[in-house]
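Appendix C: a fully annotated inverse folding record. The material below is reproduced so that readers can follow the format used throughout the book. The structure is listed first as tokens, followed by the designed sequence.
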């Protein structure tokens, strides 16, 4: 009886959560949802354009390289995994060639030790990128110097370039298509990036395996047409 009472008392204590903490949780979730609503209103065209580039590259036998720092490095791995494995069990399809440039710790530490950290993505693009491939860079600030350097190298190689960023920064000006999350709070940007990344994979799968082999988006008839930032 005493043990039962003790459990009930502990449960009551757990349920008596501070109202300030409840408000904090609600505020974060509501504000994050507001950002995603703004993304739906302002970024739809750029999300579709980015997915068309990636699908086009895969269809032509190219590959997707992905890079980012910190949480965006984790996003790079996540997105690559979705492409190589699959997004949903509802669609069985072949593997798609995507590679995160954030996973080879031997290379990353060797290059950073021998040279500097600024070139860790650029060097891998030099080694692995080919004309007709695509590089996707993820940066919440839009100012990650090592990603900007990698984009410059990708352009020189004749690769397509895509960026996921927050509001502003230099990176959107350096790529074929930029999906700019209309926010400055890093957490909200990252949460929106994850939704966009899942959409990119879903749209690419739709493009490659549901539309049909003969489909080529009009925006991709000439690569030069994509040398501008695309946004709604």
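Designed amino acids, in order:
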């Amino acid at each position: 009886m005493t043990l039962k009472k003790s459990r009930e008392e502990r449960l009551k204590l757990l349920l008596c959560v501070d109202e300030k903490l409840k408000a904090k949780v609600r505020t974060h979730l509501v504000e994050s949802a507001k950002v995603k609503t703004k993304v739906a209103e302002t970024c739809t065209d750029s999300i579709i354009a980015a997915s068309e580039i990636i699908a086009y590259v895969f269809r032509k036998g190219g590959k997707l390289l992905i890079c980012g720092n910190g949480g965006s490095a984790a996003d790079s791995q996540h997105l690559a995994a979705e492409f190589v494995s699959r997004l949903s069990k509802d669609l069985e399809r072949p593997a798609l060639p995507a590679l995160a440039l954030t996973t080879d710790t031997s290379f990353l530490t060797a290059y950073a030790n021998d040279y500097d950290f600024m070139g860790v993505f650029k060097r891998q693009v030099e080694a692995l990128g080919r004309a007709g491939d695509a590089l996707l860079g993820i940066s919440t600030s839009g100012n990650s110097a090592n990603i900007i350097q990698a984009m410059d190298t990708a352009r020189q190689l004749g690769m397509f370039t895509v960026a996921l960023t927050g509001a502003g920064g230099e990176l959107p000006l350096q790529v074929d298509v930029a999906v700019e999350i209309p926010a400055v709070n890093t957490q909200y940007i990252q949460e929106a990036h994850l939704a966009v990344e899942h959409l990119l994979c879903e749209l690419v799968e739709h493009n490659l395996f549901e539309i049909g082999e003969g489909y080529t988006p009009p925006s991709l008839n000439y690569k030069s047409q994509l040398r501008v930032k695309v946004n709604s």
